[in-house]
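User: quick one, fold this
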Amino acid sequence: MTSFVEVILPLPLSQTFTYSVPEEYASLIQSGLRVLVPFRERTLTGIILSQVERPPEKIKSVRPILSVLDEVPLFSPSFLGFILDLSRLSLTAVGELLKAAAPPEFLVKEKGGYKRLKTPTSEEIRLKFRKKFKEAEKIIGCLPEKKTRTWRFLSRQTQINYPGLMALLSRMEKLGWVGQEKRLKVPPRRKKALEPPAAIQLSLGFPVTPELEPVLNEVFRGLFSQEFKPFLLLGLRRRREAFFLALLNKWGTSAGNVLILTPDIVGATSFWEKMVKIFGPKRVALLHHELPGGKREATWQRIFRGEADVVVGPRSAVFAPLSKLRLIWITEESDEGYVHLDPAYDAREAAWLRAQQEEAVVVYGSTAPSVGLYARAKEKGFLLSLGEASFAPVRITTSASTGEKILGPEVRKAIEQRLSRKEKVVIFLNRRGYASLIACPRCGRIALCPQCRRPLTLYVSRAKAICHQCHYEEACWSQCPQCGSSVIEYRGHGLERIAEEIRRFWPQVRLSSLEADSAKGKKRRPAALKDWQRGRLDILIGTQFLLSSLEWTNSSLVVILNPEVMLAQADFRTGERVFQLIRRLQDEMVSSSKPELLIQTAAPENYVFKALANGDYEQFAATELRFRRLLGLPPWQGLIRLTLTGQSLRGLARQARSLKNELEFSGEPVELLGPTVLPRLRRKNQVQILIKGKDREEVVTRVYDWLKKKTVNYSAQVFY
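Assistant:
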């Protein structure tokens, strides 16, 4: 009797596909195995989700799987359940999440592509393709006779989506105009896992203080309950870290594996080094997407075989193949670095879902957690505190930027005092470049990205204007390209403009700047950080990248310039983000001998800055939650931001109306805001829809079901 399987494919699709199982593979079939399957004109690596008795009734013919690549499953049933839950609740295609979970080396590499066999005339193309004449002509124009071009290259050049492109190419193949060349690089066959080394019980020598004892016992009971338990841990970073090490000392890793998630790779590397000193290099694994291909695969296999008890990594490590996961530790819950855009998921929510599937414990640590999680923790009773925290004092100055000067009198006086005492100063401004807007005052023209229609950021050091969205670059204006005026205005000062002013006030000062771009690729330790740690700098200026990179023991003054600019962003969480950002700075400065935090703002009466001055997170959270309740925002209601992308605005409007009809006439009533036309992104139109509903999971499920039925290019963000 023929058997069938449901297979997940690494494609931007939320549906699964049914294949038949040849007799020679029938005895090998299990959930979680990799299989080679035909898909249209391609061969792909898929993961078996489950066995089924018969294919869906709508399917007329079922194609067989080509090969089974593993002897043991690559993913456990609980892990596949986690992937499916995450796909639904984050509105992300399950195929994209599967692709993120498996190392690239484990998927089939299909080389080759399409080439032109015959050059048809315009009349022939018009006769055969009619309404699709222009698209077909573009494809023929992009195909050379001798070299091959991949479908991705053709899609990018012609701006035709995947289904439409493949339909046109298939027809051209039948006409003999286009030929296809294929070469497959088959992934290695997975063999049975080795027996993992015996687990070790640690004796780390970390004393358990009286304030840690009750919290430690609460989490300890959760670890041995063999059921899902969440905890939100409030306290200073150093105190939370001491708690975590004390927990490891008491619990060890004898009962299961530990997953540690940090906001970024720099933080993950630092935490990994600490764990190696405790466990040794063989018991700890560092996993992230920037590891070289071979090393990433070797690390993944070490974890899969059970050779690593502790895995440390950024957001992508939430997919680590740990078979006995018992504890997930989120080091800094308030950091937005846990949000991944493509594929879209939030590692904090993903950790919750994975702990549910594995019946494990998840601990979120923060000094200023997201108010949604804080409200849920208070309501459900999983909020734990490590005692009162003593933060660096906050002083707020109302000196606004006037004229050509950015630094106000109080800020300049404070910096002068520190420099006279040979103390170090950090200046924080969350804006890159020299200026965020380039404009001609004569005719009003603004320098915009031709692809995204967003303002370009001026970088004087590079003599370029750059789009931070799509990375488009052009030369700086020497004169207005529209009216020819040589007078150009630069608005919205950035790091380079601050550095220029500091050098004007203190010409002899040793100064450097630091931002996230400074640490890309192999430059994990930028020169500015090394100079700072060795005492070669007097002033360091930077963006929020400094939070996870800097040794704050060297600084006695931190200046935050114009944080109210961030409050003006079109996001209901801006107040929360500004509070969390400054609170984390206070947390990092605790280790400094004479810490002081100086905020220069034009909005000193804002509730965010008042709560910071009082050092009271509960005051801020209560105010923020009251505002959100009045406005019907999370956590009191579910909110989804759905962005549809495509070439045709008319087509996007049609899709938006379809979604509106689907949600308005089925299930509980929801509120739709939009559709709103957004600036173009990489030469594509964007339409945004906000969807609100009382039951978040129900609204998400209804939108997810609609997306499964439609062929839609979209991005989504679900707010909790």
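User: anything notable?
Assistant: The domain at 394-432+494-630 is CATH 3.40.50.300 (Rossmann fold).
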